[in-house]
Amino acid sequence: MSVSLKSVASLTAALLLTTGAALAQTKLNVYTALENDQLAPLKAAFEAANKGIEITWVRDSTGIVTARVLAEKANPQADVIWGVALSSILMFDKEGILEAYAPKGIEDLKPSFRDEASAPKWTGMDAFLSFIAVNQPEFAKTGAAPVKGWNDLLQPQLKGKLVMPNPASSGTGYLQVAGWLQSMGEDNGWAFMDKLHDNIGVYTHSGSAPHVQAAKGERTASVGIDMRAVKEKNNGAPLDVIVPADGVAWDMEATALVKGRPNAEAAKKLIDFTVSKEAHEQYAKFYAVVGRKDVNAAPKNYPTDAEAKMLKVDFGKMAADRDRVLAEWTRRYDGKSAPKN
């Protein structure tokens, strides 16, 4: 009898070990465009609260992640899209790639940060805005009038002295181009960009690089992601951070569940975590505008009027127009793009 009990005990231990191993092997492929230094804290927090589920990141710029998800449409490899521009996520929804899921805590998000559908396909995390940054010592040499709005960037004294992101490879670049086209109208928007192009020195392949160049004095003024401009200023760069008087373009990073993947239940736990206060407190370390009502985020030197000046953006149109707009932008302006690494 004791041998039998020992056998049962051994079998039970073996089953427990096997079960533990199985849980440890639940890996979620998470496609993201979040900054690299955001990934480790988010992964650690989620995995600590969800033993047996492991995040495997697939990280790249918004444009490249978007292209990859669309290319994999027939055989999706991502379980969750976490931290990709909403304009891209709406494209995925249009292609039938996403699964509806209402995560726990969705009611704690601001209305603009959640899908209005009864069966929501996405939830917002944070907003990223496009700011102008001006290197004051370099700008003073030009004799140009102070920059207060977009048209001030067209002054001939700034020829070759501006930098902004390429919208085909940067989500920040695309939100800015889409913002001009929606707020100015198509004809006026393209006419504005034709004139702006004369003053552009280079189009970069990331949304933060323009402000880094302006901070170093390599360019006089930059258009790029809001938080990088503020970070460079807080690090001592002689930058004026400007919210254009005629409105600021923006997009939000969002999260979505991919349809038809084998680890859907684990993926839903991750979606739940992405809307939690804990996750939003992490987002708030990198973004001034976040989705939850109970998390405040603005850092030192972040313009207090930024959220009030956010343009009314039609994200559905932004997504639907993407291919056409990028093709036209590339035809007109790609000659000044930086070489790709």
Radius of gyration: 23 Å
> Would you tell me the overall average pLDDT?
92
Which residues form runs of ≥5 with pLDDT under 50? 15-23
Please write the string of helix (H) and strand (E) elements.
HEHEHEHEEHEHHEHEHEEHHEHH
Compute the number of helices.
13
Number of strands: 11
Protein name: Putative 2-aminoethylphosphonate ABC transporter substrate-binding protein
GO molecular function: thiamine binding; thiamine pyrophosphate binding
Keywords: Signal
Signal peptide: 1-24
Structure commentary:
It comes from Elstera cyanobacteriorum. This is Putative 2-aminoethylphosphonate ABC transporter substrate-binding protein. One of its GO terms (cellular component) is outer membrane-bounded periplasmic space. By secondary structure, the chain is α/β, with parallel strands linked by helices. The chain has two domains: 2-127 and 251-290, D-Maltodextrin-Binding Protein, domain 2; 128-250 and 303-336, 3-Layer(aba) Sandwich (D-Maltodextrin-Binding Protein, domain 2). The protein contains 13 helices and eleven strands. It has helices at 2-24, 36-49, 62-71, 86-94, 136-140, 171-184, 186-199, 209-216, 226-234, 264-274, 277-283, 315-320, 322-333; strands at residues 26-32, 53-59, 80-85, 98-99, 123-135, 162-165, 200-204, 221-225, 239-242, 250-258, 289-290. Strand 1 (26-32), helix 2 and strand 2 (53-59) form a beta-alpha-beta unit. Helix 2 runs antiparallel to helix 11 and helix 3 (62-71) packs parallel to helix 4. The longest helix is centred in the first third of the chain and has 23 residues, at 2-24. The protein starts with a helix and ends in an 8-residue tail after the last helix. The relative contact order is 0.18.
